[in-house]
Amino acid sequence: MTRSRLAATMWTVALLLSLLPKPSPAIEVAAYTPDPALLQARQPAVQPLRVAEALALDPLATLEPSRTGAAADRAALAAWNSTGGKPVRVGFARALAEPLELRYDAAHFAARLGQRAGGGLLARKVDGNWAWGTSVEVGEAKALRLELAEVDLPAGTRLWAYNMGGEARAFDLRLLRSDGTLLSPTIPGDRIYLEVELPAGTTLTGQGFRIHRVHELVVPFGVGAAAVTAPEADGCLQSGECFDSGDFPGIANARNGVFQYLFEDAGSTYTCSGGLLNDNDPATLQPWLLTAHHCVNTQLSAISMDTFFFYRNNSCASASATGTAGPLGADLVVTSEDTDVTLARAIDPNDIPAGATYLGWTSLRPADGTVLHRLSHPVLDADDTI
Question: I want to staple 211 with a disulfide (CB 3.0 to 4.6 A). Which of 55, 100, 295, 362 is the partner?
């Protein structure tokens, strides 16, 4: 997080207390940061061919800037944030003029190598797998996320999203939602590329999907809407980068265990923060994600979570941000409106970035007068980052 903030409560303690049955014996779990050298070796990541980037200079679908093409959506976003709507809204879905479609047809594919096939461009890898790529450009967009609909793809299908010359982020069918849609990772910039690799054994004609809309972030990725201001006058909220372990002994763990994330709900994109929690079973290391009910409270929104770790300023006075992509998608475990808490589990444990801390927690109620701290990102203003 770019503008980490200290406040007077440790939210992991308070929220977890509400989840635990009162008669249960006390549980205390220490923070844990895995040694990168001891982490299970990951398989080398398979990279896309970048078919659309290589074969087409122009995007295969375009939308005009939202200030002219989606002015009503921008106004609704600004109104939501200016009136203190929760969570903070940072984008919205926009319909493409014509859907981009991929439908498998062996005979048609064989005749279209290196050419347009449906809504994209087609190539074939040396191992026999088909590679299909497309691209969408939205004028002045700060970041984009594609929504695949009517998804019917064979097991073993690989998917990637990336920007021109940028690192590709992989995703797969584990992120398929109950409504038949599949969201790509969030990619910074005004153009997003999608590549799909179909396994060589694909035989069912008609398998594929349609892309009928794209989710656009309309504020710079990492910068909040100017209409939302932080109530700092009372001194309650302070920039976390201006504090160290002398002020808060656990600040290093907190910085490495708190994440920022984007998620989708009813066609809008929102941002919230959360914490990666340690497992109380020493035999496992489940990627528990703790956040707020007013952010994520359904499986549809949980599986749309796109997390980012280490999002913070480089120094106390710096406005330069850094960050690392974390887990994409989660399963909802428990949520409570009364206590405003949600616990989810990342779909792929291997998506937790090296250096991330699994935060400690306790079911013990702190004694009166105990000084507690909170490191989070509860509000946005013009200088904040997502």
Answer: 100
C-alpha pair distances (Å), 116 with each of 30, 132, 195, 367? 55, 9, 14, 67
Asked if residue 190 and residue 262 are part of one domain, the reply reads no
Helix (H) or strand (E) holding 33: none
Strands 374-376 and 5-7: antiparallel
Side-chain half-sphere CA neighbours of 274 within 13 A: 35
pLDDT of residue 285: 87
On the question of pLDDT at 161 being above 70, the answer is yes
On whether the CB atoms of residues 223 and 348 are closer than 8 A, the answer is: no
Distance from the Cα of residue 278 to its chain's centroid: 20
Cα angle, residue 175 at apex, residues 281 and 190 outer, rounded to 5°: 120
Q: What is the pLDDT of residues 230-249, one digit of tens each?
A: 445 456 667 778 888 888 88
- Asked if 296 and 337 touch (Cβ cutoff 8 Å), the reply is no
> Of all helices (H) and strands (E), which one includes residue 53?
helix 51-55
C-alpha 112/C-alpha 161 separation (Å) is: 23
DSSP letter string, 280-333: S-TT----EEEE-TTT--SHHHHTT-EEEEEEEESSTT---EEEEEEEE-EEEE
Q: 265: which strand partners?
A: 268
Domain that holds residue 284: 5-31+221-376
Q: Are residues 266 and 349 in the same domain?
A: yes
Q: Is residue 156 in some structural domain?
A: yes
Buried b (16+ CB within 10 A) or exposed e, 227-255: bbbbeeeeeebebbbebeeeebebbebbb
pLDDT at 103 over 60: yes
pLDDT digits (tens, 9 = 90+) for 321-376: 668 999 999 999 999 999 999 999 999 999 999 999 999 998 898 889 988 887 76
CATH number at residue 153: 2.60.120
